[in-house]
Structure to design on (144 residues):
């Protein structure tokens, strides 16, 4: 591993969500106003994800008061506090620039259901694993 790769690896965030075009996200970005710093939330649809590694960035689009606003964020930027993925969208394209010409119902993206089903199954499996352990401890507590 050369020096540049090592520096990039040190500057990357440890845990970042897997983003894809079509996902609805809530980005908590730090904004400096004069001497004060606050967190501003930007919620919208990811229309593209580009780059890789430390240079990975994504563009989020939302419509407020009839005006479309797009903002590009660096995934590993220190200005990003956290990224919440609210729902995963089911789209075919990697770039959703066609949403710029759509308004209202036309701009909706259907939700990717199979991930929700998989996560629900994983939760059920975890609950099953935890349930026998708690019943064993109750039995052990009753015997002495």
């Amino acid at each position: 591993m050369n020096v540049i790769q090592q520096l990039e690896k040190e500057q990357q965030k440890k845990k970042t969500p897997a983003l894809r075009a079509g996902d609805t996200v809530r980005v908590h970005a730090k904004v400096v106003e004069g001497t004060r710093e606050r967190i501003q939330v930007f919620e919208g649809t990811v229309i593209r994800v580009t780059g890789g590694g430390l240079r990975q960035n994504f563009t989020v689009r939302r419509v407020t008061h009839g005006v479309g606003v797009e903002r590009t964020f660096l995934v590993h930027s220190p200005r990003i506090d956290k990224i919440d993925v609210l729902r995963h969208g089911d789209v075919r394209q990697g770039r959703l620039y066609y949403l710029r010409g759509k308004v209202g119902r036309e701009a909706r993206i259907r939700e990717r259901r199979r991930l929700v089903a998989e996560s629900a199954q994983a939760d059920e499996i975890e609950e099953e694993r935890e349930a026998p352990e708690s019943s064993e401890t109750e039995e052990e507590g009753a015997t002495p």
Remarks:
- Residues 112-144 form one domain.
- Helices lie at 3-11, 113-142.
- The mean pLDDT is 86.
- The beta strands are 24-33, 36-50, 57-64, 67-74, 80-87.
